[in-house]
Write a structure and sequence with these properties.
Number of strands: 0
Strand content: under 5%
Number of helices: 4
Largest sheet: none
Order of helices and strands: HHHH
Distance between the termini: 45 Å
Shape: elongated
Length: about 70
């Protein structure tokens, strides 16, 4: 297994936690891609960023997709 230095993991997680980036890209990723990114972010110490990627991705899902949650109740 490859070890990632703590400072690199922290910088990676911070860069990929940017709200604009998440909003622009999460809906374009496949379920597999977003799951892997969220897992890496969580392993880098940023649980909230991993959760955010999944949440924003799910907002763009359709019935039958892995992360689809149904219509939101407003």
């Amino acid at each position: 297994m490859t070890w990632i230095p703590d400072d690199l993991a922290e910088r990676f997680a911070t860069a990929w936690a940017d709200d604009i980036l998440v909003d622009d890209l999460a809906g374009r990723l496949t379920c597999t891609e977003v799951e892997l990114l969220a897992t890496v972010l969580r392993q880098c110490g940023n649980q909230a960023a991993g959760d955010c990627w999944i949440t924003v991705h799910a907002d763009n899902e359709r019935p039958g997709d892995d992360h689809y949650r149904g219509p939101s109740s407003s």
